[in-house]
Design a protein that fits this description.
Blueprint (H helix, E strand, L loop, with lengths): L1 H17 L23 H30 L6 H8 L1 H36 L1
Helix pairs in contact: 1-2, 2-3, 2-4
């Protein structure tokens, strides 16, 4: 999972930054396309993969920390116990939530900017 998401994120980053097409050209649209917002689901997938590069290691670190506390006999909370038992579920959920929040923020920011520019032009 980690290697696959890292590889996909690397290909996406190279395509976006350098315009590279590593897997040849075809006419079929890629689910990982970095085209403008609203052109498809590619932007959501991109955000999910990018977020996974952060949330997966952090989740496993927190799971290991909670496991170490539990083995030393230090009481852990229910949340820490859940993260300890299900680190990949927590990481993927956080990635999805982050991608959705980023999309909502971008949509709200665009709408606010459009509204402000219309008000400014009407003055």
């Amino acid at each position: 999972m980690l290697v696959g998401s890292g590889s996909a994120a690397s290909v996406i980053a190279q395509k976006g930054r350098f315009g590279r097409e590593d897997f040849g050209k075809n006419d079929a649209p890629s689910p990982f396309s970095l085209e403008k917002e609203g052109s498809g689901g590619g932007d959501q997938v991109y955000r999910f993969l990018r977020n996974s590069l952060v949330t997966v290691p952090v989740s496993y670190y927190n799971a290991g920390s909670a496991q170490a506390k539990a083995q030393k006999g230090i009481p852990i909370t229910k949340t820490e116990d859940f993260v300890r038992r299900h680190p990949i579920l927590v990481a993927l959920s956080a990635s999805l939530l982050g991608a959705s929040a980023q999309r909502a923020f971008r949509t709200t920011a665009k709408a606010t900017s459009d509204l402000a520019s219309k008000k400014w032009k009407s003055l």
